[in-house]
Every structure is written in structure tokens, then in C-alpha cells.
Amino acid sequence: RMAAKLHRQLIARDTSSRGAMCLPLPLPILRKSQYKTQMLYPVPFTLNAQPFGRVTIPWGAGREYPVRGEDWAYLIWRKKACCAF
Q1: Over the chain, what is the mean pLDDT?
Q2: Minimal CA–CA distance to 28: which of 15, 44, 12?
Q3: Which bin fits 17, alpha (ψ -120 to 50), beta or left (φ > 0)?
Q4: Beta-carbon neighbour count of residue 54 at 10 Å?
Q5: Which segments of the chain have a pLDDT < 50?
């Protein structure tokens, strides 16, 4: 939700398209292919990162503590196209 909010407010930038290779451009709509998430807590999932919008059932089943609450930690990866190479 926060990534979508930042895009709507033109705070988050497009960093993954050809037009934004050397200079990040404002993008009011979230591009799902630009972000991936990886669960860090309570049970880390270190095999790979999941793109935004993918169903969590295959990799997220059994990865929460039912007694301790619903506090999770995710690492958010952002794709960046670079013009230096």
C-alpha cells in the first residue's frame, strides 16, 4: 500500500523503463514489474523474491506465528535500469 501511495503522490519514481534509464521519472501509477518482496520475519523465505501481485499461498503457507500476532517484516527490492553499462 505504501508503494502505491508514494506513486500516487509522485514521490516514488519510475526506475525500470527505458525512458528512465539515466534519470528517474515521476510515475503516478505503480508498475508491478518494478518491485519484488522477500519475507524476512517471522520465518524468512530466502529462495527468491516474489513480485507484487503474486498469490502468497504457494510460498507463504505456514509462515506466521498464530499466537504471537501478525507482525511481518518484508524486504522490498526495486528494479533499476542503469545507463552506465
Answers
A1: 79
A2: 12
A3: beta
A4: 14
A5: none
